[in-house]
Design brief:
Strand content: 25-35%
Structural class: alpha/beta
Strand order of the largest sheet: 5-4-3-6-7-9-8
Radius of gyration: 16 Å
Largest sheet: 7 strands, mixed
Number of strands: 9
């Protein structure tokens, strides 16, 4: 029996240098690209905080958040995904955009976060696959292993309400919203 061909979907960059550019990505199990409306809200919340920021996207998936941040003036982005197809696709997108201030790593996100970065990050996008218990250990590793600048911003997507999330005590909730069954939140770290 033949397996079904891989389905592809599209993402659109909303604003910035690459506004309205569209990119394809192969659908993967558990991949939930952040919808345009949610991304627009998030980047409105982050207004004035993207330009020159170092961004980390350990569960990159479609790459929508990484590409949007880079388009809006992020100085550097590190994206990570365990899927070779996802990583190759994202590398291709960056090559098409002639973007040299981003790195894409093929690695398990929790393994990445167990290490220490060369320099901490100003902004982190945490959008792990749901119902796999990945958000709490990711938050803890970011805090424990020096991944965050003193006043870093952390964006989370979860099936749980923000009040129910396990997170470091020095993260304060800045904004939260719900879209369907997804809660999305922006946190600020206090050193």
């Amino acid at each position: 029996m033949k397996s079904a061909p891989a389905r592809t979907s599209q993402l659109r960059i909303i604003a910035g240098e690459w506004r309205s550019r569209r990119f394809g990505f192969t659908e993967q199990p558990g991949l939930r690209p952040t919808p345009d409306r949610v991304r627009e809200t998030l980047f409105n919340w982050l207004s004035g905080r993207i330009e020159g920021a170092r961004c980390l996207d350990p569960f990159a998936g479609s790459g929508a958040l990484t590409l949007e941040a880079l388009s809006r003036g992020a100085a550097y982005a590190l994206a990570c995904d365990s899927s070779r197809d996802v990583v190759n696709t994202l590398r291709g997108h960056l090559q098409t955009l002639q973007c040299s201030h981003a790195d894409i790593e093929q690695q398990d996100a929790l393994k990445l976060l167990e290490g220490r970065p060369e320099k901490p990050f100003d902004l982190v996008f945490l959008d792990p696959p749901f119902r796999q218990g990945l958000l709490a250990p990711s938050c803890a590793a970011l805090e424990t292993n020096g991944w965050l600048t003193d006043n870093a911003w952390i964006y989370t997507e979860s099936e749980l309400r923000p009040a129910e999330l396990e997170r470091p005590a020095n993260w304060s909730l800045h904004r939260e919203k719900r879209a369907g069954q997804v809660w999305y939140s922006l946190w600020q770290r206090r050193a």
